[in-house]
Design goal:
The chain has 67 residues and is α+β, with helices and mostly antiparallel strands. It has one domain. Helices cover 31% and strands 31% of the residues. The protein is built from two helices and three strands, in the order E-E-E-H-H. The chain has helices spanning 41-52, 57-65, and strands spanning 2-6, 17-24, 32-39. The radius of gyration is 14 Å and the shape is flat. The model has no long low-confidence stretch (mean pLDDT 87).
Length: 67
């Protein structure tokens, strides 16, 4: 699962977006692999640009509206 959390109380130069990628290895929440870091908006824009190399705009809209 990919999650992004925004914290406006952090300094912009330290990154205000916490990006976390989680992979569950079982049914228990504590049994998972995690990778997380703070980044800024340009890094998120780069991430989206890279995703668009693999998904077309309609795919992205469907992903975003699936919630």
């Amino acid at each position: 699962m990919f999650q992004i959390k925004y914290d406006q109380t952090r300094k912009k130069e330290e990154g205000q977006y916490f990006v976390e990628l989680t992979k569950n290895r079982g049914l228990e929440i504590v049994n998972c692999d995690r990778l997380g870091y703070w980044c800024d908006k340009p890094h998120l824009e780069h991430f989206i640009t890279e995703m668009l190399k693999h998904f077309n705009v309609l795919d992205m809209v469907n992903i975003l509206l699936k919630k």
